[in-house]
User: What shape does this take?
Amino acid sequence: MNEGLSVLAILIGIFHSGLRLATPYLYAAIGETFAQRSGVLNLGVEGIMLMGAFSGFYVTFKTGNLLLGLLAAAAVGALMGLAMAFISVTMKAEQGISGIGLYLFGLGASSLLFKTVLGTVEGVRGFPELNFCLASLGGDSSFCLNQIPVIGPIFFKHSVLVYGAFALVPVAWWVLNKTTWGLSIRAVGQNPQAADSLGVSVARVRYFTVSLGGLLAGIAGASLSISLLNIFQEGMTNGQGFIAVALVYFGSWTPVGVLAGALLFSLINALQLWVQVLGLEIPSDVAVMLPYLLTIIALAFPFKRALQPAALTKPFQRGES
Amino acid sequence: MHASWSQHLRLERFAGALLPLIAVAGALLIGAVVLVLLDKNPTEAYREMVAGAFTNKNGLADTFVKAIPLLLVGLGIVIAFRASVINIGAEGQLIVGALLATFLALELGERLPGFMVMIICLLGGSLVGAGWAAIPGYLKARLGVNEILSTIMMNQVAIQVGFYLLRGPMIDPEEIAAGTNIPHSARLPRTTDLPRFTDVAKGLGFTESARDLEMSGLSGELYGLLVEPTRLHLGLFIAIILAILVYIFLWRTTIGYRIRAVGLNPHASRYAGIRVPRYIILSMSLSGAFAGLAGALEIIGLHHRMFEPLAVSAGYGFSGIVVALFGKLHPLGVIPSSILFGGLLVGGDKMQRAVQVPQVFITALLGLIVLFVVSSEIWSQQRASRQTSEPAPPLEAEAEATA
Assistant: This one.
């Protein structure tokens, strides 16, 4: 045990990393929430995240412009979401298997591009930590929010993508529950026949949600490669895309539930990292295993299963009941 | 009139068998475009791929060596699929099978006759694979947990279990002595090595090489494949025999019939008195048994020691899904399918060396093939819905007849 760190410092470290690490889960799982609420299970999130991570990294590396990189990741993600929508909505393909296909494609394509156009592991300067400072009148000293004890280092030392991820939760809640679009999405996922008979285009809604889910998954990947880690590695998402899909089940298909799940997972992840940093007598392999074991246990909890969209994974065919 | 109808049917069935081929052609075409964009010559790349995998004895041997785990994993996925269960966990099931087989061979190798240890390893690998798969099977059957997600998580757990064992209790003592601490096990006792084709040929008295017999061309390569030293081992026979047994099991036994009934219509099956949850768990466990067996065979037939989990499973859990889909989810269709995709993997390796296209190209290609195959299903479904205009026999009656 490292004696140089106080318990408080360790706790601050765990919560700070916890908020950071929730970022990719939030983008990907909120996007997937939209897709699943409209009745489409997109299991290819992991593949989209990898492509998003690569394109965001590559464009940033080549242009030095972080916004362009983020835009590229979002565009590539949306495009892959569009492809998934075509496969699952228009071609009515089995969604579980097509998701695995999309994952394999994303894994292979991102590694192929990395090996052929970059070749070696390089770093970029990612999104910087934001400073929330109030310039005090008259003097050149200023007060920054991150100077507040405990609260400051936990909440006010993050990049813009981290705050964006958390801001997404209320926005998603509002869109799903308070707008006509949200109503259409929920109707299409719950009872597509009824929605169709009322003039809602099931196909159009699902194309929209799955593409949006892809866009957010692309940003989730970029949040790893140009904000949290600032590198690209083959297969760097390491199953986070699949965990994000599981989080949607865990969060009973609601943005707030997803937020709770994402925080729980990222805190466990942070704890696991700190166990390794502190060199505690727990084998790192066992610690790495924890989030996955937790996912299995979380999926097994039967509460709120009734909230699952009734038409999830079922392609819509007009005239069938 | 009647004749033309049956002719029509035959034509449609032919088209149905052709769909996966068209899907692969589509994926290869997109792959070719990607190669052009990467400044590589696609015809040259594909030629190297085919030549490397299918035209000489070493390439052929490697193709068949890779076809063995692909066939076994594919068979498992077919069984699960027939019960409408999607097993993405073959990767993890294969790893735990390989781990247990390694452990058993190291423990028993010196004490029991070699062939007995081999049998124990294969049985042990199958059993632990079945047990590993039974967990997500149970969770699906009893608690409605999505098996795709739970099996993916089980894969990650298996990988970490493997690393833990190989860094700790199972590490090669020589690695500790040398201080390198590479996570792999000791080499298994040689008595536990599954015989290779060349060993059998020698035992049967074939000692001359193709050159000795002045054979050349294709017949020389084929003779060499069977007689000369290659890595090809008897696992190929085991896998092919099992494919035939799975066919008999699924289509000629009551349990197999019930598994398929559960997959086709769980509600009707329940009314026909089939305990649906039990058959979901059974199909998942059988599926895992095949993956575990594949892992055990990789150890005693090929590697003779356990090393990095993901290098042993080598993505077979995922490529096995492609193999099963391409084989039209039929146990006998999986045989040629596994050889084709074994060749694709070997060819990818050769292509990497010849024209410097990274092997991950094959992973992307496999993904595209999956997407094309599942998308093309829409045509077979439309055909099926046209054919069901005549009433099908009620399931209950059929169940009674077979029970």
The mean pLDDT of chain A is 89. The CA atoms of residues 164 and 308 of chain A lie 27 Å apart.
